[in-house]
Amino acid sequence: xxxxxxxxxxxxxxxxxxxxxxAAIHVGPVHVKVMERTGDKQVSQTLEYPQKLASTPKLTAxxxxxxxxxxxxxxxxxxxxxxxxxxxxxxxxSTGDEVxxxxxxxxxxxxRVDVARKQFRAQLAGQPGKYTVRLVLGxxxxxxxxxxxxxxxxxxxxxRAADTVVYGRREExxxxxxxxxxxxxxxxxxxxxxxxxxxxxxLVAAWQRMGVRVRSVDGAAAGFLALVxxxxxxxxxxxxxxxxxxxxxxxxxxxxxxxxxxxxxLSRRRAAKQ
Amino acid sequence: MASQKQTQTQTDTQAVALRSLxxxxxxxxxxxxxxxxxYMAFCVAVGVxxxxxxxxxxxxxxxxxxxxxxSAVACFxxxxxxxxxxxxxxxxxxxGSSAEGxxxxxxxxxxxLHFVVANFLG
Lengths: 274, 122
Hints:
Chain A is α+β, with helices and mostly antiparallel strands.
């Protein structure tokens, strides 16, 4: 990016020195917005070049900052101009460090820069303080324009340099537990547990009314059903605490007897029907 | 007055239709299918209770709700399959299958389903 900017600056310089045929870039109204977390606008101002921001808005991770403008090749703002460079440069007031954000072109000549939570955390949060904001616009045909828009205050904690070695006792790490989940009262849970189990009773009663009798199950079918019940018990045991591999071993051990018992019971039943 | 009478007549007609439906269902539906229907109604009831709990008291823990509700839905679907295959009226649509084979498939699907559910319950 630095190389690109150096090349661009040289090109613009050469053009400026080279002749007076180079036209100028004109910027239309610049819309600056800082939104609150609630969706309300903390700052919403439309600037006409070379007007500056009236106040110093405070930027945080949860207050998205946006800047939108249109570039023109004429002073009457009739012909929109697609730029070769549309940057918002934020310079830290005390350290001089710069954060450069590239504008995204929407319609022809219209640009927008958004500093949302992700960009804020990545590029600004580590170095809080006052920043000057400038629009740096450039075109190889039309020349360049630098527009100081104003100042913003970036909130955040000063990041410790990554290459700093700290000897001695470190700060104690304290685990912050998450907010406990809101749970209904025990009575409500118990009531719904009973409600969820109640249809089982109704099902058994309905089956009995229809004439389904446990006594009518013969030995082979009982063995098959017992093995199926063993599978269900195994699923419950897996849920309670048996690990996956032992569970799979038990599943395999039960598979063959269940298959044989099921085959025998169901074949016998079918033969009895025929 | 006339509209009240009309409403009363409509209610009577509906009650008669429902009673007739119930009588014909009991008389003409094989017992095996009625047993399966009762099981399907049971699945619906369990699913509805869980859904009401989720709507009224919250979905935490969500995985448990999903496992329970999904289990009710899957059991209903398996039962519907079993019903289709065991219904004598559908014999032409499933020429190679028997009621016993369908029951075997039903049991196998349930075993697999309940292991999946136990895995998902957390």
